[in-house]
Amino acid sequence: MRFEERELKSYAEPVLAGLLKEGEVYFSVQFVDEDMLIPTMETWVFAGRRLDPEDVEDHLYFQDVESYRLGIRYAFATAGNAHFPSRERGKYQTHL
């Protein structure tokens, strides 16, 4: 397998919220120190928009990759078997 060579940017580019696809995998990179030398990375699956009937805003839902691989989906999830953080939709999802 070969990937074409390209110049990498020195900064992150956010994902456009409108381009997120259900079931696709996204990565969240955070830094634990102020100098941004120690990164942590989490893997998330985009679960969808406005999954909760009580959502008044256009919320975006992500699911932890472990429960997704076990076949657990939002409609059948419990607090103990899956994690679904949601974000109010903006133009960009800057945390991914």
What does this structure look like?
- By secondary structure, this protein is mainly beta.
- The chain has one domain.
- The protein has 1 helix and 6 strands.
- The chain has one helix spanning 65-69; strands spanning 15-16, 25-31, 39-49, 59-64, 86-88, 92-93.
- The strands form 2 sheets. A 4-stranded antiparallel β-sheet has the order 2-3-4-5. It has a two-stranded antiparallel sheet with strand order 1-6.
- A hairpin with a 7-residue loop joins β2 (25-31) and β3 (39-49).
- The radius of gyration is 15 Å and the shape is globular.
Output the keywords.
1 helix, globular, mainly beta, 6 strands, about 100 residues, four-stranded antiparallel beta sheet, single chain
Strand and helix layout:
Layout: E1 15-16, E2 25-31, E3 39-49, E4 59-64, H1 65-69, E5 86-88, E6 92-93
Give the terminus-to-terminus CA distance.
26 Å
| Secondary structure tally: strands | 6
Assembly state of the chains shown: single chain
The overall number of domains is 1
Spatial ordering of strands, largest sheet: 2-3-4-5
Which radius of gyration do the C-alpha atoms yield? Answer: 15 Å
Beta-strand portion reads 25-35%
Helix content: under 10%
> Number of helical segments?
1
Average pLDDT taken over every residue: 83
Shape estimate: globular
